[in-house]
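Supplementary Methods, section 5.1.

A reviewer requested that the exact input to the structure prediction be made available. We therefore reproduce it here, unchanged from the version used in the analyses.
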Amino acid sequence: MKSPVITAIILAGGKSEAALAEYNGTPHRALAKLNGVSLIQKVLSAVEGVNSTISNIYIIGDLPTFENCVSLPDRGDFVSNLLNGLQQCTPESYALILTADIPFITAESLNLFLKESVKLCEDGVSMIWPVIPVDQCYSSYPGISRTALNLKEGKLTGGNLALVNPTALLNQRDKIASAYKSRKSIFKLAMLLGPATLIRFAMSMLRVKGALTVPYLERCVSKLIGSKARALLCNCPDLATDLDKVSDFEAAEKFVSCST
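The structure derived from this sequence is encoded cell-by-cell as follows.
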C-alpha cells in the first residue's frame, strides 16, 4: 500500500483564562512565547520538518497568517474547529491533528510517530495516538503537570496529537462532541464508554493491578469512533508536554533557561 497523503491540522483556537492571558501578554495561548518564539511557530517548525508527504497545513484559530499555511477562523470550540479541519481533507488522505501548545515537539519525534502510524494505517486503523510513560515527561520537563492513567503497562499519558482517517471521525460527530464534553471527568468519560469501563477506571484509581490495559482502551475508543483505533507507545515526552496554566509556563521557562 502506498503511504497516505497527510493533511496537517494545527488546532490553535480558544482563549486563555484571565491569569494566563495576563501572564503571557496575549489571550491566545498559541501566540505566547517561550525563549522568544511563539508556541505555534515551534509546532509549525516541527510539522514542516517531517519526512512524510504533507499536502497542506491548516492552522485553525484567529491568528496572524503564516507562510505556506491555510488559515481558518476559530469556530468557538475545540470540536467545531476539529470537524472544520477534517472537512478540508480529501477522502483518501489522513489527517495529522496537533494542538498548538506543545512547544518542545521536534521533527524527529514526529517522524518516529508518523513512521509507525503509517504502518498501522496500512492495516486499516482509523485513529492512532501516542502514549508516553508519564515519568519520562516529568524527568524531561520537570514541574510541568500531566494527566496520566494507571494501566497494566505502566502509568501513561497521552500525546497531544493523532493521525486519523477524516471520514471515520466525521461519521461520529455526536459521539466525539460528547466525549470532549466529558474529557475532564474520568467517570463521565468512562460512562460514555460503558458501565464496565467505569468499573475498570474505578479499580485502576484504587491501584488494582491490571484493571485497565492499553488493548482494552483501544477497544473502547474503537467502539466510540466505529472503526479501529490504536495507541502507539512512544518514548517521546515532547509529544505530550503541553502548557496550559501559569505554573506550566514558569516551569518551561526555567527549563529553557537552564538548557541554554
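The domain at 6-259 is CATH 3.90.550.10 (Spore Coat Polysaccharide Biosynthesis Protein SpsA; Chain A). These observations are discussed further in the main text.
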